[in-house]
């Protein structure tokens, strides 16, 4: 009889663990790796904001376009200070407005958290002169819109 009770307790614990004891966590729905029809406009929009920020010597609009998740852990002051070197370099990025990016890789970061479902990540380049640009951009879904989460933008000299 005690063996039967023990077995029932074990089964009950396993069932509770399986159904989550009423937990509100819902695993994210996997999204497919996006194609160039999404990635190219994202890259163009992001790099256009970047070029504008360099030209104006002010990253306010660029920072404000980033995801809430990113801006929640990085203040504008910290972000702006990190960009001073890029502003001082005086890059000529005027060709970005007419250039098309070349996407070299794309994928999904499947490490969801409570703040985000998944992250799309892609790399590419703008073959502009005199300073070609390479980039790695990561976006999170915020309310049905892809918002920039992190970036690495390199302007070659």
Notes on the protein architecture:
The chain has one domain: Nuclear Transport Factor 2, Chain: A, CATH 3.10.450. The protein is built from six helices and four strands. It has helices at about 1-20, 35-55, 60-65, 70-75, 75-80, 85-90, and strands at about 100-110, 120-125, 135-140, 145-155. The chain has a four-stranded antiparallel sheet with strand order 1-2-3-4. It is globular and about 50 Å long. The N and C termini lie far apart (about 80 Å).
Question: Would you kindly provide a brief summary of this structure?
Answer:
By secondary structure, this protein is α+β, with helices and mostly antiparallel strands. Helix content is 40%, strand content 24%.
Number of separate domains: 1
Helix run count: 6
- Helix/strand class: alpha+beta
Q: And the CATH topology? A: Nuclear Transport Factor 2, Chain: A
The SSE string, one letter per element, is HHHHHHEEEE
Stretches with pLDDT under 50, minimum 5 residues: none
Instruction: Calculate Rg over CA atoms.
Output: 22 Å
Termini separation (Å)?
A: 79 Å
Strands in their spatial order, largest beta sheet: 1-2-3-4
Task: Supply the CATH class.
Answer: Alpha Beta
Number of strand elements: 4
Residue-averaged pLDDT, rounded? Answer: 82
Question: Percent helix among the residues?
Answer: 40-55%
Percent of sequence in beta strands: 15-25%
Biggest sheet record: 4 strands, antiparallel
* CATH architectural category: Roll
3D shape: globular
């Amino acid at each position: 009889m005690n063996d039967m009770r023990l077995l029932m307790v074990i089964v009950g614990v396993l069932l509770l663990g399986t159904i989550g004891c009423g937990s509100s966590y819902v695993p994210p729905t996997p999204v497919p790796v996006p194609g160039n029809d999404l990635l190219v406009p994202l890259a163009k929009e992001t790099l256009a904001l970047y070029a504008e920020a360099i030209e104006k010597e002010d990253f306010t609009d660029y920072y404000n376009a980033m995801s809430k998740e990113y801006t929640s852990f990085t203040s504008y002051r910290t972000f702006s200070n990190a960009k001073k070197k890029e502003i001082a370099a005086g890059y000529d990025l005027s060709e970005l407005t007419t250039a098309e990016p070349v996407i070299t890789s794309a994928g999904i970061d499947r490490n969801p958290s409570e703040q985000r479902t998944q992250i799309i990540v892609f790399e590419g380049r703008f073959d502009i002169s005199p300073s070609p640009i390479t980039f790695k951009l990561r976006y999170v879904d915020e309310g049905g819109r892809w918002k920039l989460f992190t970036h690495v933008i390199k302007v070659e000299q």
